[in-house]
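can u do me a favor
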């Protein structure tokens, strides 16, 4: 650790004077230090809540606080800090005992030079450890980005060791007709070169292996699975995978059209269309970089999580248009009262986040209070109406022990929940001890609420129509879920599903939805609505449920319902993560004559590759491509690309999250079969949409 760095020192001693004496020993060695002092366990907790130290000195033999208690408290907080015990003597037996209790070393009061040297060693080790952690974070981040870039590239990329394939991206697999990586592993690279060019290619590889300065580009001819020969450029570069040396080979098909790659520039978008602030994805990326920098010690940073207190009342009583205008006003307020260097984002429907760098606890608390006050004082004038709102604000300082961006966000979100639980219109800075306990209590309450809701049917199914633009006469509804609180008000899925995932309740919730949806649909069809079909979502947890197909079959049989009336939706992300289970489930559901769909399609890097493994009936195009469709050329190009691919594979597409007439007009012209969204109808408890009416 840099000698100029002010040492944050925590001394556990029975008196302040003794603590100052130990701090002076370090100051006399030229080490500037800021002292925090703890006499008992209560002092220790307060000191650690206030600031994370660089080093802990702990006196042995204290009646009020033992070395073991100090070590246990640090472990509970997951703080890997050097702890040096201070004793009356430091013989071999005492040192062994102190280290057995968790100290890094033991020094005696009468050997100050020994203490100085031990501190120097431990701080050097700490700095090395922080640097290693920083390098590891950056390495994993670089590796993640490299893989994402490689997977999204339209160029065929492979890694070869001693002439054999060890890795290839989706474009490479697709080019040469392989379904997955296992099929190509161990296959010679020579098999991808036209036979007449084998000798030339072997000679090129020999020259490249001998001469590091050799140009790694070769114009040759490749051979495709159908025997077709094509002109290709191979680019060879030295690389490594898992520490093993290998060669990266990029094959550029001279006839390839790069238009599809350009269409994917949409993924680089940063802004939320309604507010002009940064969007959720960009904020998370920037927060991830900030966490890396804080962990490395190169900067400080803090986060604000702001949520409007009465957004539901505004939306329900005044309408979505007014609510959107209020959201935009709040966004403008945040932008005008934050610094230009701040990352201000619309994070959710009515929540915002702010990332401020070079910021400590007092700084972020001041900003939070300022934002709370301007929101409270603002009067939004919308359609001759005056609308006021307040905000609950949670704040979290990014510490050197932060694990990820998601953890930082969770802490700020939890702090926001503390502010809301206290009545709203207030700020709260995350306290790791108090808030963690509150978070556990909140999760336990939600867990109990979910359990009670499942046992006593305190859940409500809602239905949103999926409407045909091409004359399909069937009535299609997507089934959505809400939980009910004690006041019979809706609790949205994003408020209870994360807890259900942590507590293993997702599969049980899915079964509840399936059973009640099938019962509702059977009654509806028995009343003469024979063309009605339901789309039912399945969570990732349900994909691994080997008994699900049997459960669905029993429900269908018991209610005398045709399996063709049901379509089960699997998210693209879940299908990618559990591909083997997804393939098996799709197959068994089809045996029951049920249909299947991939939702949020197009959001991942391997969307089209996934279709080779999953013969689903419907593709629900991810809502991010439909949003602002009329004015976003990249979105239009991506939707067209998905439609063209779906048509060639005889799959039907559904555009979800259609929110405005302009997007609908573009979708109509594109020839998409089905649309869904609040522009047509918001989710409703009733199955009463007029599918025969004109869409305007």
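np, heres the sequence
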């Amino acid at each position: 650790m840099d000698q100029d760095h002010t040492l944050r020192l925590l001394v556990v001693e029975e008196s302040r004077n003794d603590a100052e004496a130990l701090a002076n020993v370090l100051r006399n060695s030229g080490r500037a230090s800021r002292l925090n002092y703890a006499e008992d366990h209560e002092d220790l907790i307060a000191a650690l809540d206030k600031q994370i130290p660089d080093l802990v000195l702990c006196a042995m033999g204290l009646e009020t606080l033992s070395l073991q208690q100090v070590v246990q408290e640090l472990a509970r907080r997951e703080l890997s800090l050097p702890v040096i015990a201070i004793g009356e003597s430091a013989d071999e037996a005492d040192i062994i005992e102190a280290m057995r209790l968790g100290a890094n070393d033991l020094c005696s009061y009468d050997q100050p030079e020994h203490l100085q040297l031990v501190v120097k060693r431990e701080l050097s080790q700490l700095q090395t450890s922080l640097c290693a952690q920083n390098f590891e974070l950056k390495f994993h981040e670089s590796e993640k980005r490299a893989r994402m870039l490689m997977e999204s590239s339209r160029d065929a990329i492979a890694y070869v060791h001693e002439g054999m394939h060890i890795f290839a991206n989706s474009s490479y697999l697709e080019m040469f007709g392989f379904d997955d990586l296992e099929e190509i592993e161990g296959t010679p690279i020579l098999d991808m070169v036209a036979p007449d060019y084998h000798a030339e290619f072997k000679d090129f590889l020999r020259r490249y292996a001998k001469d590091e300065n050799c140009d790694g580009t070769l114009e040759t001819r490749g051979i495709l699975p159908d025997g077709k020969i094509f002109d290709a450029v191979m680019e060879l570069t030295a690389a490594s995978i898992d520490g093993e040396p290998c060669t990266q080979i990029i094959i550029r098909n001279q006839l390839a059209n790069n238009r599809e790659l350009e269409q994917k520039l949409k993924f680089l978008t940063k802004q939320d269309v309604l507010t002009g602030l940064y969007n959720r994805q960009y904020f998370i990326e920037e927060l991830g970089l900030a966490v890396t920098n804080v962990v490395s010690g190169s900067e400080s940073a803090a986060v604000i999580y702001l949520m409007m207190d009465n957004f539901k009342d505004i939306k329900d009583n005044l309408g979505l248009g007014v609510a959107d205008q209020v959201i935009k006003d709040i966004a403008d307020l945040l932008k005008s009262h934050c610094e230009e260097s701040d990352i201000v984002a619309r994070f959710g429907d009515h929540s915002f986040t702010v990332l401020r760098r070079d910021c400590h606890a007092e700084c972020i608390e001041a900003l939070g209070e300022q934002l709370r006050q301007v929101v409270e004082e603002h009067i939004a004038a919308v359609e001759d109406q005056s609308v006021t709102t307040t905000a609950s604000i949670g704040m979290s300082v990014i510490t050197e022990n932060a694990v990820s961006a998601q953890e930082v966000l969770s802490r700020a979100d939890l702090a926001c929940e503390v502010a809301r639980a206290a009545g709203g219109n207030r700020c709260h800075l995350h306290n790791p001890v108090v808030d963690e306990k509150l978070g556990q209590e909140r999760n336990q309450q939600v867990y109990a609420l979910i359990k009670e809701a499942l046992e006593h049917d305190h859940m409500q199914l809602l239905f949103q129509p999926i409407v045909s633009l091409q004359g399909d006469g069937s009535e299609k509804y997507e089934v959505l879920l809400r939980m009910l609180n004690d006041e019979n008000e809706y609790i949205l899925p994003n408020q209870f599903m994360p807890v259900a995932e942590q507590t293993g309740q997702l599969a049980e919730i899915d079964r509840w939805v399936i059973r009640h949806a099938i019962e509702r649909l059977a009654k509806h069809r028995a009343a003469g609505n024979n063309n009605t079909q339901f789309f039912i979502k399945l969570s990732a947890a349900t994909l691994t449920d080997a008994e699900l197909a049997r459960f669905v079959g029993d429900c269908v049989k018991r209610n005398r319902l045709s399996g063709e009336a049901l379509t089960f939706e699997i998210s693209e992300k879940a299908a990618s993560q559990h591909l083997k289970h997804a393939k098996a489930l799709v197959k068994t559901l089809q045996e029951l004559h049920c249909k299947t769909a991939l939702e949020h399609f197009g959001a991942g890097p391997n969307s089209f590759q996934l279709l080779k493994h999953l013969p689903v009936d419907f593709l629900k195009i991810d809502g991010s491509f439909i949003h602002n469709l009329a004015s976003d050329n990249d979105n239009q190009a991506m939707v067209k690309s998905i439609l063209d691919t779906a048509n060639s594979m005889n799959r039907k597409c559904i555009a979800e999250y259609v929110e405005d007439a302009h997007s609908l007009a573009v979708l109509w012209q594109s020839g998409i079969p089905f649309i869904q969204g609040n522009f047509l109808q918001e989710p409703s408890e009733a199955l009463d949409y007029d599918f025969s009416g004109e869409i305007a």
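The longest helix spans residues 112-152. hope that helps!!
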